[in-house]
Amino acid sequence: MSGVRSRFGATREPPGEQIDSGGINAQTSRAVRNHLRIGNYFASYEERAGNMSKRALITGVTGQDGAYLSQLLLAQGYEVYGSYRRSSSPSLWRLDALGVTKQIKPVTLDLLEFSNILKVIDKVRPHEVYNLASQSFVGVSFEQPLYTADVDALGVARLLEAVRTVDPGIRYYQASTSEMFGRARSSPQTETTAFYPRSPYGVAKLFAHWTTVNHRECYGMHASSGILFNHESPMRGLDFVTRKITAGLARIRQGQQDVLELGNLDAKRDWGFAGDYVHGMWLMVQQERADDYLLATGEVRSVRDFIDCAAQVAGFTLNWHGEGAGQHAIDRVSGKTVVRVNPDFYRPAEIDLLTGDPSKAEQQLGWKRQVSFPRLVEMMVEADLERAQKGTLGP
Length: 395
Ligand code: NDP
Ligand code: GDR
Description:
The structure is a single chain. By secondary structure, the protein is α/β, with parallel strands linked by helices. It has one domain (about 5-240, about 270-300, about 355-390): NAD(P)-binding Rossmann-like Domain (Rossmann fold), CATH 3.40.50. It is built from 12 helices and 15 strands. A hairpin with a 5-residue loop joins strand 14 (about 330) and strand 15 (about 335-340). Helix 4 (about 115-125) packs parallel to helix 6 (about 145-165) and helix 8 packs across helix 12 (about 375-390). The site of guanosine-5'-diphosphate-rhamnose has 23 residues, from helix 5 and helix 8.
């Protein structure tokens, strides 16, 4: 049964004792927030009062982007409803870390359940819906292709149909992905590059993208699809390669882990900062006409480049040895192996290189990313070093 409750508080663990997949507790969150001044990222928006009467619903509010988008919309004066999946203890560490938990109005919503979605949309009557909810881990989608399709493809059709049924005038944002380009035919990718997804996740997201476009073109809905390239932050989940690297190096520094094992180190991605990307989402929804926009940095780096940059911030000097599955990195000071390849982390189908050209978003939305790659890596490593020092990073 869906329901709007006054605050998340009823289901939260006591402050300082909640340890979850993010591996930090509320006390650490405050320290990290102060340290990185994450709480101030959208401070310049606080003066804008034009959105005071707007109501937004964010699905997947407990995820990385949901937390940053909540912070942005609250700073703009929105009334923010955040949807999360019913569970005995929802994962609130990101919302706590960004200091927004108590300002968000929680609603329970699962993309697998149409009647639940319909009731939530009818009850909240949002002006804007940001659909960020998904099974977002590409690696898992190879193991759970049907579940991934149900949530990431059909779930979006359910949500769009619920919006259309309740009020087709509601503005809609769909979290689409560079994974739709997959084995891309040209580089850098643009909004018109042909799609060739290489994972069940990419295939499901492509269905969702075209369903969004179709609802715009068939039913006249204000539905935009943001084709976003990888964006990271200290709030990133621990399974994704960037956070796995920064958390792993921080644990090794603290003697809590021996070695960091990874899959394909040669994969190249276009990594930006999540805070910049949620700003782009909001800009898309504010346009007079809905459309599709790509957000990226246009810079390419390999997983190995990311490791080198992160290792430097963490105080290691790595020397690389070997080829392919035999690649490993030894710290020059300690003489210990810090990173090695474990083929168990290879994927059945890999995407070698993705990089995007964000010109359309820059010209039409005025979007510009603010955080550079070195600063992003520094932010993430510093946050994880602090968590590891306090013993709150988890195993
Ligand atoms: P996260 O994995 O951090 O967050 C996903 C959110 O979806 C979580 O809140 C999760 O809830 C929720 N969710 C999962 N399954 C369901 C379901 N069945 N019903 C309702 N909610 C569900 O992802 P990000 O914040 O990184 O990404 C946000 C969106 O953007 C996702 O759709 C992702 O696919 C897409 N995207 C992300 C990119 C990136 O680089 N971060 C790039 C391009 C697209 P719970 O806490 O219960 O698990
Ligand atoms: P991605 O991100 O698949 O691009 O999806 P992820 O960080 O999982 O992988 C990036 C690249 O790193 C390689 N890799 C590893 N990846 C993980 N997770 N773990 C490892 O040990 C490892 N070793 C090497 C991967 O093979 C891959 O090439 C993310 C998600 O946020 C999606 O939801 C989003 O749509 C896309 O970014 C854009």
